[in-house]
Amino acid sequence: MLKEESADTPAGVGAGGDVHRLLVLDDDEQIVAMIRRIAARAGCNVVATTDTAVFLRYLDEFSPTVVLVDVFLGNRDCTMLLDALAGRQGRSRFRLLFMSGMGESALMLVGRIARERGIAVDRLIYRKRDLFQLEDLLRGKNELPARLG
Q1: For residue 77, which of 52, 100, 102 has the smallest C-alpha distance?
Q2: Which of 125, 36, 52, 108 is nearest to 85 (CA)?
Q3: What HEC string does 93-139 produce?
Q4: Residues 6 or more apart whose Cβ sits within 8 Å of residue 7
Q5: What's the pLDDT tens digit per position in 53-81?
Q6: Cα(23)–Cα(45) distance, integer angstroms
Q7: pTM over 0.90
Q8: pLDDT in tens, 7-60
């Protein structure tokens, strides 16, 4: 597990004058480090982890405005994570971004399954092509769509 940054970390201003609180779950520590750098340049408070249990705890404690999740976490079952997200998204107001490097068709399938479970997915990010857009999304230069589906 990576060292988490405190939610009290000073940050700049995101879109609309509000500081984005970005919560990240990815099992690749190098990707997590890259996302931290991107989010820092965009002026976000960031909490990132490679551990699902820590992620779920921060989902409740950090009150993120944007949640970025790698939906294919090694050999872990993503359906448990989807169920946890479905239960929490109704109580919290966060924009949900799903990311994967496994392939666009697999990512779209998980997005469809999530929507069938009542999860509002804002953006599907194919890591090999779309990750560079994250900074623009967080800065508000490329606004998040209303909701997918």
Answers
A1: 52
A2: 52
A3: CCEEEEEECCCHHHHHHHHHHHHHCCCCCCEEEEHHHHHHHHHHHHH
A4: 21, 45, 47, 61, 62
A5: 899 899 888 889 899 998 877 666 677 78
A6: 9
A7: no
A8: 333 333 333 445 789 999 998 899 899 999 999 888 899 999 888 889 989 988
